[in-house]
Amino acid sequence: MKIKLITIFLVSVALASCTQSNEQKAQTLTKKYLDSTLNDAKSYEAVKFSKLDTLTESIDENSQYRNYEQVKDSLKTIADSLHNAILGAIVSSPSDTANLKHKADSIYSKQEKNLEDEKAFIEKFKGKPIGWVISHTYRAKNAMGAVVLSTNLFRFDQNLTKVTDVK
Hints:
By secondary structure, the chain is of the alpha+beta class.
């Protein structure tokens, strides 16, 4: 019985040590990427990795936010048109002016409501995770053969299987 428990324990420890953490996966992908892109990969020397962080969508990429912006633009265009129409109607017909003013008031209240909703959305916004990001500082030879210190931001897909962007 003890032998079975010890065997199970050793097998589970061996399996656990074989799996890489997300941080290790990101560092491995970063090194592989640099190995294939540096001028002199043999001169590569890692200096520092930041902690791996979750990459989330920006608010500009969010469809609900874009909808608020489109509504805001549309309402502004309508309000500007009504404003110009009111200025023209003041001279020609007081009854048209009152009707246009009523429409303008309605548009202004819709604008105000949309802005309040958009502000509330922005304050609560937490982008959905779209990948991972890590900063890496390293030394390597450039095209002229001089060793330079570089820091880049590496972005990865959600499954940590590939580098998607480097800045």
